[in-house]
Structures are given as structure tokens and as C-alpha cells.
Amino acid sequence: MDLLGTFVFGLSGAMLAVRRDLDLFGILVLSLVAATAGGALRDMLIGATPAAFLSDQRYFVAALLAGVVVFFGHAQIEKLTRPVMVLDALGLGLFAVTGAQKALAYDLGPMGAIWIGVLTACGGGALRDVLVAEVPRVLCEEIYALAALLGALIVVLGHGAGWPAGLTAVCGAALASAWRIVSVYRGWQVPRARKR
């Protein structure tokens, strides 16, 4: 699931790069950043060093492959409804659950595992957005971090209840991704402070 999330987030980063008219190098950089930054931050915080993407070359390959796929196939991907948002939502769900699972494997408590799941899911996308001078989606868009929190929470609850890890992860990723996608189409938002 971690490699699949890496590839999907790589696609979202690369699609944003294409929309910002970046060259091939820029596309690959945004793909790599979106795909690996959240996991790298997770690994540093839980003491799993070096970060997985540095020690396992499959992460680099997945992220760069996503960039190449978008470079040559962005026109077909763009035909999908809101492709960056959908890809981002899928990556969000996958990374939320894998982040929480890895945190639990490193003996973090429930709250720590949830926090690491959210950070894993949101970190790469936030850095991707900053690199193209956008306010990170996690801070201003519809349900984003809350969807990641839901996915991580399901993993933690499932772990505590002794549910099968694979089934729990699939359910958590699916529900987190679905909540994110539905929130965009329905216009659901986290309440904001009223300006005077």
C-alpha cells in the first residue's frame, strides 16, 4: 500500500506541475516531493532511519515513474473529473493508513499513531503546494486533514480491537479517500473564523 500511495501521490504532484507549465525536471521534482516527503517526515519522527525512500529504491522508481507517466499521458489523465483532487484523495487515504500502521509497528501509542498517519498523508502534498506558491490544501480546502485523521483512526481502532491489519487498512484508506472526494463535490468545509 505504501508503494501504491507513493505512485498515486507522485501522479498528483506531476499533474499539478503540468498545470503550472513546469518542464520535465520540474514535473519529476514535484512528483518526487509529493510522493516521498510525508513518508520521510514520518520515518524521521519515529526513528526509522534512513527514511524508507532513501534505503528502498522502489520508492524513487515509483515516484519518478509517476512523473514520466504524467509527462507523456497528462492529456488522458486530465480528461478525468478533477484528476489532481481524486489522485490526491487516493494518496491521502493510502498514506494515512500506512503512516498509522508503521507508527504502531514502532510502538507509538494511539494518539501518536494517529498524528503520524495524518502527517504522513498531508506532508508531501503540503510541500508540493508550497513549491508552486499555493497555500497548502491541508490549511484551506474542504475536508482534508480530517479525512486523513479518519483513516488513521480506523487503523488504530482496528489494531486495538485485533481486526485483520489488511482489511482494516483497506477500509481506512477507502473511507478517508471517499470522505475527501465527497466533501469536495458537496462543498463541505471545516468552519472558519468569521472576519469582522
Your description of this structure?
The chain is mainly α and 196 residues long. Helix content is 79%, strand content 0%. It is globular, with a radius of gyration of 16 Å.
Radius of gyration: 16 Å
Strand content: under 5%
What is the terminal-to-terminal distance?
46 Å
Strand-pairing-aware structural class: mainly alpha
Count of individual domains: 1
Mean pLDDT: 92
The unreliable regions are: none
Query: Could you tell me the number of beta strands?
Result: 0
The rough form would be described as: globular
Overall helicity: over 70%
Q: What sequence of helices (H) and strands (E) makes up the elements?
A: HHHHHHHHH
Output the number of helix runs: 9
Largest sheet: none
In short:
The chain has 196 residues and is mainly alpha-helical.
Key features?
196 residues, 9 helices, globular
Task: Summarize the topology.
Layout: H1 2-19, H2 24-46, H3 52-55, H4 57-78, H5 83-105, H6 110-131, H7 137-140, H8 145-161, H9 165-186
Helix pairs in contact: 1-2, 1-4, 1-5, 2-4, 2-6, 5-6, 5-8, 5-9, 6-8, 8-9
